[in-house]
Each structure stands twice: as C-alpha cells, then as structure tokens.
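Structure record:
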Amino acid sequence: MEQQDFSNHRKMDPLYHYVLSFLTLLVLVGSIWFLVATGKVFEGVLFLGIAVALLFLFLKVRGYALKAQDRAIRAEENLRHYILTGKPHDSRLTIDQIIALRFASDNEFAQLSRKAAENKMKPNDIKKAISSWRADHNRL
C-alpha cells in the first residue's frame, strides 16, 4: 500500500461519494421537475417525498457509519494510550482530536495527546504535528 501521510490520508469511496450522491441528486431534481412540468400533483408530491426520503437516507447512513467508526477509534486509542502510559486519555480531548491522534506513532502519541489537550489543538494541526505517521487504511 502507498505510504500514508497528511497529504493523502483522506479517502473517498467513488461508488458512494460520486455515483450514489449524483443519483440521489438526479432523483431529487427529476421529482421537482416532474411536479412542476406535468402538473400531476399527487404523483409529483409522492415522487418528491420519495426523493427527499432517499436524500435523508443517503445522509444518515453515512453519519451512522462514521459514528460507529468514531466510537471504535475512541476505544482503540484510549486502550493504546493506557498501554503506553498506564493512564486513560485526558478527558479534555474531543473525539475529533482523538481521531486525528490515531495517526501518531507510538513514540510521539502520548506527548502529542498531552499537547493536544493542553493547547486545544485542532485536528488538522494535530495531524500536521505528527512526524512519524501511522497509517489507517480502513476508514473512509
């Protein structure tokens, strides 16, 4: 696999992010056009309702998957911090900071965790501060 770092760590799933998002938008626009162009109110509103439901489903499914991944990352990184330091993560760390910290190597993880909590570092600043990157190829 390609060496991962700050410049290439973000991943996209083409089928979800491009194809499905385009199709969802197409159905939404098509349903609005059908309602306006044909004047068939019942069918148009029904079609629009289905399109809006599809849009909500598209957005919520992604959110649920990310929340599950966030919970797993928080647990994994808390365990990792405990193994390395004998203490759980600082309670001041936000989930976004913890997610960013997962890229830090074991050698810099504890120190960077402490610095992130004390200085309220933003996730991108945490990632930029990492000198020895630990890849995560599983999260989208």
